[in-house]
Records
---
Amino acid sequence: MSVTRQFADFALSASYADLPAAVRHSAKLLMLDTLGCALGALGTTPGLAVRRIAHQSGSGPATVLGTGHKAPVATAAWANGRLGNVLDMDECYKVQGHHAQAALGAALALGEEGRRSGCDVLMAFTMGFEAGVRLGNFLSPRVTVDDRGRTRGWTGLVGPGQGVHAACAAASRLLGASAGELADAFGMCAQYMVGRDWSRQWGRDPDLGTLKYADTGWNAQGGLMAAWHAREGLRGIRDIFDTDSYAQVFQGVLLDPAALLRDAGSRWYLPETSIKFWPCCRWIHYALTAFDHIVREHGLAADEIGKVELRSFPMIPYPRFGASDDPPNLVAASFSFAHAAAMVALGVPAGPQWFADDSLHGEAARAMRAKVGLGDDERGYDPRAWGLEQGELKVPSHAIVHARGKVFEATGDYALGDSWEGAPRYGQADVIAKFRRLAKTLAPLSDRWEQRIDRMVETVLAVDELDDVRELTAALSLEG
């Protein structure tokens, strides 16, 4: 049997009973976190565009999260997948990419249409995520670094590759697909992917535009369409993971077919993903964690800070990372070390408030960004410092703050939200607090809405007990 077929069989055959209790719990928390990110995005400029497009697409059986609007299945999958990544506050697997939103977008839309149980949808979400991670490990090593500090293991291929295949695996489970059909659908997913590393081209633009590469909404919809096509008897490239197609189309990709099935059924990757507690690129979180520690430990106010130097991994690829000017839009702001540090120093709640007009263009934010500089942490030039031999991912980082006539310093290898031993601790209460903060932005002055948020949390954490997943989407609706 081909590796592609075996991988498809694993994605479809695993049952909820096969998941250890810790994985089930982590899956519910990740679902809660992903839903919170989507709700928090609804009032942003991109979020409002998603809502308008969804309304223009007509009505159907699937809910656009937080709105109560019922849309066609493909539209809802796209909308909810897109909303989950707007704030760039969603999970990130070892800085390899995001794929929970695409898997959840497809799973929720199909689950509603088919009136599937909460357990069915949770399992589709979980196996979609697992498929995405394993595909990422197939396409390239998670991260490697040479003795000159050059990193490999992340390409623009990885993000869209994981996302569309994650959504496809999730959708195929709910459609009742066979392993052969999912294998064919995976071949179509490969054909949906862009033919070159557009993330690098995108990253050369200091503005960055208002649409990120590897759009998670398109991934959710693309994976769903591949699954639908395969159920209708169509197919893509046969046994895609057994060929060298990826290596020929995307030069420099290191294929590892064994990674698709390594420890399948005994090794679960979902609990290892990083929860993001700030709305910015995950690469920023390492130095930001050190800076946040200094600010909180010493109670520093923004006007007390004279200068900040954030040192992180070498070979930072995007011009926006080092920019200290006013970010022109939400996407540019989420890729700016200076903006993230300014928001932390000013005590702006992590979420859509980071992208309000005053945060982007106000005098206080502008003054604080001007104090922030960016450089390399010399430890990052030593491959041993990245923890890769131990199966971890460290990003050596350092924050130096001049304030009150003193110099405060903190170093860090991990970021808040990392799962590794030694990283700053977080737990269920922290994930719930993040969800509450993001969900509350929909109706910040409504006591009734705040009470409903409590019920949302309870519903998600008991999603595997729901007979019909529509109970979940109804609970998440502002208009319900």
---
Amino acid sequence: MKEPAGRPGYSLLAILLVAVGIGPLLTYGLSAVSALVITELGISEAQFGLLATVCFGAGAVGNAAFGRFTDKQPDARLLALVFALATLSLLLAAIPGGYVLLLVASGLAGLAQSFPNGVTNRILAERVPEGQRIGWIGIKQSGVQVSQLVASLGFPALAAWIGWHGASGAGAAAAVLLGVVALRVLKAVPLLPKIPIPVGEVPAGGPAPAPPSTRFLIWALAAFGFVNGMGVQATNVYLSLYAVRELDFSLVLGGVAAAAAGAIGVAARVGWGRMMSRGMAAPPLLLLLALLALAGAGVFLAAGATGSALLLWLAVALHGASALGVSVVLMAAVVRSVPSSSMGMATGMVTAGQFGGFTVGPLVMGTLVGSAGGFALGWTAVAGIYLLCVALGLYLVLRRRRRNRRASA
């Protein structure tokens, strides 16, 4: 598992991807077998949505609270913490202890997602040559969608054999194995040589605070992540249930629909990451993704109104290509703009914004789906969320153009 001396290779990239993807495994797995979970536990759609709300709420708090903690801890310790929390969450879900225990497991899964973006961004900044970084962000951020793909296919298949509790236990075993491999690979990759800073360039009180433009960028990215995050998890958590209930898909085929979104999301994140690595700015790309996501929400609504499976697959493709690709744009913008010494704090703020949206989306969607308006009202709300993303993206594009005009004047 050793990397070539001084040159990070694909095994490092793989463990970065896995570190980002291991925390969401439980949530995506439960979503893929949501019909079974709801029936076995005797809970409502809103109560099922609360599982995701607790998960992402814990992640939002963790990202906001532990940013400075992340900056002060060594990489190996943070990776070990990520895999340990993910393993524990899956182990608790494997115990047939009822709804409350599943809520606790979901909270731990959320905490497992408090650290991966910060530590993996820092690993990129300190161990990977500059020319590779932005392209690698697209690949490592696709770990979330790889997790969605694996869980959406694996949980229904394993649930048919050993039940959904057994599927969670299998996930825990995989998390332990992957954690051991991740730590071994990280140990083999050295830090890049530090570039000496001439005396007198750093103020006596330490590095200068971030300029206002950078602070604004971080807050703007967090805001966009929050709004987009509402739509992302409102869709992800209820996609399989929608396919099963409204379009008469089987449980396995409903899982395949969610897996397809994940697979397309993997390709999208890699592709958008490559565009960012070629110099494309974040604002126009965020606007494009918001427009595509808005179109996807409209097609989800049309699929239910017409009962068309073809329209559902088109909506899945649009969702995977657009809303699921936003994270890589946000993370690439952070890595471009923030020094590695503050990477955990800045990443934590942006990720906390996303997780705040992840927290609200499933709870609102579950409440709407369980109401008289059903999924039609739910998809209408998702479309409204993405319309707000379009407005935010347009504002950022126009602001960037004004700044560029002033700079060239």
